[in-house]
Amino acid sequence: MINVGIVGGTGYTGVELLRLLANHPDVDVKVITSRSEEGIHVADMFPNLRGHYDLRFSVPDVDTLSDCDVVFFATPHGVAMSMAPELVERGVRIIDLGADFRIKDVELWTQWYKLEHTCPDLVEMAVYGLPEVNREQIKGAQLIACPGCYPTATQLGFLPLLENKLIDHRRLIADCKSGVSGAGRGASVGALMCETSESMKAYGVAGHRHLPEIRQGLSNAAQRPVGLTFVPHLTPMIRGIHSTLYATLKDPKDGLQALFEERYKDEPFVDVMPAGSHPETRSVKGANTCRISVFRPQNDDTVVVLSVIDNLVKGAAGQAIQNMNIMFGLKETSGLSFVGLMP
Amino acid sequence: MINVGIVGGTGYTGVELLRLLANHPDVDVKVITSRSEEGIHVADMFPNLRGHYDLRFSVPDVDTLSDCDVVFFATPHGVAMSMAPELVERGVRIIDLGADFRIKDVELWTQWYKLEHTCPDLVEMAVYGLPEVNREQIKGAQLIACPGCYPTATQLGFLPLLENKLIDHRRLIADCKSGVSGAGRGASVGALMCETSESMKAYGVAGHRHLPEIRQGLSNAAQRPVGLTFVPHLTPMIRGIHSTLYATLKDPKDGLQALFEERYKDEPFVDVMPAGSHPETRSVKGANTCRISVFRPQNDDTVVVLSVIDNLVKGAAGQAIQNMNIMFGLKETSGLSFVGLMP
Amino acid sequence: MINVGIVGGTGYTGVELLRLLANHPDVDVKVITSRSEEGIHVADMFPNLRGHYDLRFSVPDVDTLSDCDVVFFATPHGVAMSMAPELVERGVRIIDLGADFRIKDVELWTQWYKLEHTCPDLVEMAVYGLPEVNREQIKGAQLIACPGCYPTATQLGFLPLLENKLIDHRRLIADCKSGVSGAGRGASVGALMCETSESMKAYGVAGHRHLPEIRQGLSNAAQRPVGLTFVPHLTPMIRGIHSTLYATLKDPKDGLQALFEERYKDEPFVDVMPAGSHPETRSVKGANTCRISVFRPQNDDTVVVLSVIDNLVKGAAGQAIQNMNIMFGLKETSGLSFVGLMP
Amino acid sequence: MINVGIVGGTGYTGVELLRLLANHPDVDVKVITSRSEEGIHVADMFPNLRGHYDLRFSVPDVDTLSDCDVVFFATPHGVAMSMAPELVERGVRIIDLGADFRIKDVELWTQWYKLEHTCPDLVEMAVYGLPEVNREQIKGAQLIACPGCYPTATQLGFLPLLENKLIDHRRLIADCKSGVSGAGRGASVGALMCETSESMKAYGVAGHRHLPEIRQGLSNAAQRPVGLTFVPHLTPMIRGIHSTLYATLKDPKDGLQALFEERYKDEPFVDVMPAGSHPETRSVKGANTCRISVFRPQNDDTVVVLSVIDNLVKGAAGQAIQNMNIMFGLKETSGLSFVGLMP
Asked: How would you write A106-128 as a 3-class SS string?
């Protein structure tokens, strides 16, 4: 059994890790931390876990965490980098669901996250945990930077086009719609039901922290710097991200469907839908799947890709577990066979 | 492996059976029927099932179904009774999620369902599939009448009080709130998002078909005919039933919490919450659990019980599988370890 | 023109007052206060008001408010009582949408609101602003205690039965369902979309602050102390209250429909629905109407009343304006002709 | 008083016309038609109208409608064109909320709507009822083709850019999100709460009927044929359209905010938000306003416009009334002073 620690267990990605790991056959959650909820039983905070765990929140402590084989950080940025160096030194594997190790350019990271980075060397050694791109490096990694939710949906949608240099890489558009759970479990007026339900709005149009991360991933795929306009929207639902991607084809022709199917044919968690399909976020609710469709409307030179995930699963906790499975040589789908909850 | 057939696979209980059975280790779904969708792949209708099934809808046919060990009927009333006699004769076990075999008084059934019953003898042999009451009979049963959703939440909430004759059985009140999935997947104006979202209403106050079923179950528990006022409400959510139950205590005193805990201490799917808790339907979303709290507000003589289930799981497909597990001597929780999806 | 001041304009009842008063022909909103938002334009906080107001939040100040003909307090309890005495002295009329003057028994108030009352004499002079009961006293009142949302829906539903002594007053049950806006606009985890959407739960079963208020109103109507079990529920919608009321008829017989119609035949904002109807909260969304139906299921001795309002309108801001109209001799429906937003 | 007839009163645009006209000071609704609901009182179908109308549905009949000054068609395409010629001949003014007269190219119309047009001459005389473009022609018009919902939000967002030739007109992108009421009030599985709530999906990516209408309007503004990719999305809310528009600036520079403000400074129903704002659909819920923001993210050459309306108001019934006001020389805002319902 793999002993697991979770730092920051009171947010939505924390409880989602617990939900998924409860049914993982090879894992034992040993430690879960929260400063504010020390001593509280996890099931008292999250009653869906009643009967599945006998575990209390403890104050984060490197010594205790060192007994774990792997530690997940389900924390705001800045936390993982404060504990990672010592854990790495002690040989503990780390999967950071936060943003501390995602951006390779540390200055750029500082510019967007308004914080000095305290361990740039770990940024260098960290592997960006998108298995569909970096599976081999993940196998040997000690430190995983788990991708953000928007970056996951958006990269998986653009990858086949960019890797094959089929589109004008200078003017990519990602119009993304997220459920409210992306805003986290903190008390805030902006995420109240009365403020978000029965409404739709864009936010962060002038600049959102996932922009540099997406740009980095897409530039890697394109092997040159891409231009990207990224507009996130707050959608009146709890879970789900729908990325609608637009690009101009250099040489408009058929064959995009086959290209996408080929690219992802061995991927257990990317499902290229039949031509003409419109994936729904609910089809992946609770599941680790990304479903993708590709269109060339009116047979024109604009390609449209639709890519949906559950932001808390393939966009966070599920992908983190997928990374863990790969790191520890487990079956990649272990504990992730959940079928989307529909309706 | 147990070979399973499902009659009526295009409704919400049908797809929910498929979702749950996809992760059941001892089961193979061999047949799923639908007259209207013959030849269609189940995953084309329900994309959440993509990658989990290689199965197409077929026209219901007794010969094909006879090869199954057990057949689930996820059909409107009237269908199961038309096929059950022949299947029973051939030794196939039947679990009817519909209403055909729930009411022992066939005349009463006809009065509420406006249909002549075509096999009253099967009604007699059918076991009412509420494991918390009838576990022993379920073990040997060939035909299970799976309880309705409201009846499940309501009976589990009232049972400890009635079995112990603690309340005035003549004036029970069940104020029940159901998500919209209870209305089924048929096209109807009344279940449109624009008609049900952002609104609350009661319906069927003058009389609802679950009334005689609940009354029968409660009367059995009380060992005398009970009086019941049952008011169902349509609630703007997809899944979930919240039963709020009221009764007058004959001899108001403490000890109700202990009574409920004792009654359900060995039940894998009934969770008596700590005193003072308010169960939320979301804590059982997708899960087979019923969570219950009991109150005596202001230390008065009125007892209030709160009982929540997922109408599609413990109120339908999950309970059906629980019955199957018991019938076939499997572990009762097999395939039902799903943790409620929260948030 | 009547000059209006609003104290506490940043909550949901505050913005609802502004929405409704924007179309009131006889009113000019002169002052709106908020300590935290001083100097901010109301339309910057509530963009629905853009183009309708040229008004900024100011710090609450008795001198400024004294220039108003009437001041609405849309504040948490404790605020109105701190400013009311001086305003009353200066002849300003006051309509308190909070709880400070609702409960005539000041000790009882203190017990439920955990606060000493600083002006018990004003409690005595305050008129409880339920026009359907106290219209005459409201005409001459200087200080109105506007009823709570649950109390409004519940009292209007029970009144005809209690005034005519038709029901056992010792065991009344009010099972009430409220939209999330009832929880206010403060940042809190419990009112987040992710915590409240797609779920149903009861709360405050052991005791809720509206209980003594409802009991007081019902006892007045019954002319004796009533016994009441009140269970509020949080419903996944923004606006609306649905009260489902249960009582035992002393002498079960027909005629309840006529009784209700007669009681409310001259009331502009109470709509007794045709027999057999189930009122929906959405039918009063944004409107000042209370819709009521009365049932005697199975011709039994239990009467069921369904009563719906918009908690922010007839349950708060609309009723406050109705009171103002009466106090100032305006047409009672002035500014309140809004039709419910449906769908 | 202007005598109004409404053909097709049982859909969402029909009831919305009734809601808005109930408070219009200069209008009397004399006739409302529905074949299926003949003789039914409008308030029995739409209880929000109780107390506001004394009107029953009648079978559509040209003679009766001829007594009206203006007839609104709130019908599926094909209906208005079957009755319009005779009404026009009799001098009745017509405002068609459907699609029959929107597309000037009748062949193109037939291609998208799969129907022969029966009165192409009326198409020619019809005025496209977007007051922000065609106010002068509307004044004298006898027949108005009221714009579709997506076309309204999208055109108002693109107009200032195209009229001033600031963007590459060959590759416009409109990523549009609509509430479910856009799907109408017909019984359909696809619009059930259980199918649409808690989910997001695109639809009609390969081609949607509003595409040629939007393209026509934008091409007029640009004075040349534009290229447009239009992707509509079904959003889990009842009302609201959010158009997110993308285009490439020919000569990237500041001044877009001023340009938009100038373009719409005299428009009573277009609100250009302060720079940096993100309009929310809820801010216009029930109101006839279109709110717009314009961005140039990262000071790049891509311009992003956010444009929100209530699809049933500025996208249908409200705009129709605005047209009527202009046609009859009434105050343009008459009956349309409704403030958006928020929360």
From this structure: HHHHHHHHCCCCCCHHHHHHCEE
Q: Residue A173's pLDDT is what?
A: 98
Does D163 share its domain with D119? no
> How many other C-beta atoms lie within 10 A of the C-beta of residue D258?
11
Within 8 A of D277 by CB-CB distance, chain C residues are: 47
Cα gap C264→C138, rounded to integer Å = 18
Give the tokens for residue D149: 């919902």
Chains that touch A (3 or more CB pairs under 8 A): B, C, D
- To the nearest whole Å, the CA of B187 is away from the closest chain D CA by 5
Interface test with D, best of C50, C194, C293 (most D CBs within 10 A): C50
pTM of the model: 0.97
Which residue of A lies nearest to D234 if distances are taken between CA atoms? A280
Which residues in chain B are contacts of D191 at CB distance < 8 A?
A: 192-194
ipTM exceeds 0.95, yes or no: yes
Contacts of B47 in chain A (CB under 8 A): 273, 277, 279-280, 283, 291, 340, 342
Which regions in chain C score pLDDT beneath 70? Answer: none
Stretches in chain B below the pLDDT threshold 50: none
Q: What is the pLDDT of residues A207-219, one digit of tens each?
A: 999 999 999 999 9
Q: Look at C283 and D50 and tell me if their CB atoms are within 8 Å.
A: yes
Predicted pLDDT at D141: 97
- Nearest 5 degrees, angle CA C176-CA C180-CA C182? 70
| Residue A246 lies inside a defined structural domain of this protein | yes
Residue D18: closest CA among chain C residues belongs to which residue?
Answer: C339
Q: Which pLDDT score is estimated for C253?
A: 85
φ, ψ dihedrals at B329, nearest 5°: 70, 20
Helices (H), chain B: 12-21, 42-45, 62-66, 79-89, 106-113, 120-125, 131-139, 149-163, 193-196, 210-222, 256-263, 318-327
- Mark which residues 147-186 of B lie under 8 Å from D by CB: 180-181, 185-186
Q: Which residues of chain D have pLDDT under 70?
A: none
- Please give the Cα distance from A109 to A123 (Å, whole number): 10
CATH number for the domain harbouring residue B7: 3.40.50.720
Q: Pick the catalytic residue: D149, D176, D194, D290?
A: D149
Q: Which residues pair with D245 in a beta bridge?
A: D174, D305
Instruction: Answer for the pair B302, C171: CB distance below 8 angstroms, yes or no.
Output: yes
Kindly tell me if the per-residue pLDDT of A253 is higher than 90: no
Q: Give the tens place of pLDDT for each residue, A155-196.
A: 999 999 999 999 999 999 999 999 999 999 999 999 999 999
Q: Do C193 and A197 touch (CB under 8 A)?
A: yes
What's the confidence (pLDDT) of residue B253? 85
Mean pLDDT score across all residues of chain A? 97
Using CA atoms, how far apart are residues C95 and C324, in angstroms rounded to an integer?
8
CB contact under 8 A, B341 and A48: yes
State the CB neighbour count (10 A cutoff) for residue B259.
Answer: 17
Q: What is the CATH number of the domain that holds B193?
A: 3.30.360.10
Q: Are residues C47 and C158 in the same domain?
A: no
Tell whether D116 and D79 lie within a shared domain: yes
**Residue A111 CA to its chain's centroid (Å):** 21
Chain C residues whose CB is inside 8 A of the D313 CB are none
Domain-embedded: residue B328: no
Q: Which domain holds residue C266?
A: 149-311
Q: What is the pLDDT of residue A281?
A: 98
Overall number of domains in chain A: 2
Which pLDDT does position B48 carry in this prediction?
97
Q: What is the dihedral of CA D20, D25, D26, D27, to 10 degrees?
A: 40
Which amino acid is residue C236, in one-letter code?
P
Residues C176 and C90 in one domain: no
Q: Is residue C320 part of a domain?
A: no
- B193 → closest Cβ in D186, D187, D192: D192
